[in-house]
Amino acid sequence: MGVMSAVRILLADDHQLFADACKSLLEPEFEVVGIATDGRFLIAQAIALKPHVVILDVHMSQLNGLDAGARIKRAMPGVKLVFLTMSTAPHLAAEAFRRGASGYVLKQSSGEELLIAIRKAAQGGSYLSPLVAKETVAFLLKQGESRGEDKRITQRQSEILQLLVEGNSMKQVASIVDIKPGTVAFHKYKMMEKLKIKTNAALIEYAIRHQMTQ
Q1: What are the tens digits of pLDDT across the range 53-107?
Q2: Which CATH number is correct for 4-143, 3.30.1440.10, 3.40.50.2300, 3.40.720.10, 3.40.30.10?
Q3: pLDDT-derived band of residue 147, with 50, 70 and 90 as boundaries?
Q4: In angstroms, rounded to a whole number, what is the distance separating the alpha carbons of residues 29 and 2?
Q5: In this structure, are residues 104 and 97 in contact, taking their beta carbons and an 8 Å threshold?
Q6: What are φ and ψ of residue 12, in 5° steps?
Q7: Topology of domain 148-209, per CATH?
Q8: DSSP string, 47-94
């Protein structure tokens, strides 16, 4: 058995067909232990299945990949994160590496590129797709900037905002996040106050501008 064949992979993607295709690509070389379809389920699966490498998208329902990846790294510091996404935005790639990523691969890349990224991650290295501007990512990492205005809202507020923008009511958000509806309302009020936003439409526009939604 080769070294790489012992690597346990957990896949996360909202699109089942894409996830199944990735599984078929990876299985000759790696052990795919599970597929998660949203950010919250991904965290639970990671803790339960203890993979060596998690492949996830930046844009995921319930909880975006950046926040989900950060939580997984806090719970399991040794796990490797490889982001597989459509976004070529350097600031998102930089943020992924700030959150503990070992790889950032574009979905429009070749299958071989993903395999290379996983191999490097599993061996303690890192990989950034050539289609993303390396110099810009390096500059952003050096500057230590974190998604611009997004720094002004907390991770919990970001999580609540994503769920609200996805169409969940305050009661539904409260149930998902396991807090009281009044606390959701309070976080929404604090976000609007911090961001100097007056309407729900403007709050949704903010979330879309900062790529919090799919």
Answers
A1: 999 998 888 888 888 999 999 999 999 999 999 888 888 888 899 889 999 999 9
A2: 3.40.50.2300
A3: very low
A4: 9
A5: yes
A6: -140, 120
A7: Arc Repressor Mutant, subunit A (1.10.10)
A8: HHH--SEEEE-SS-SSS-HHHHHHHHHHH-TT-EEEEEES---HHHHH
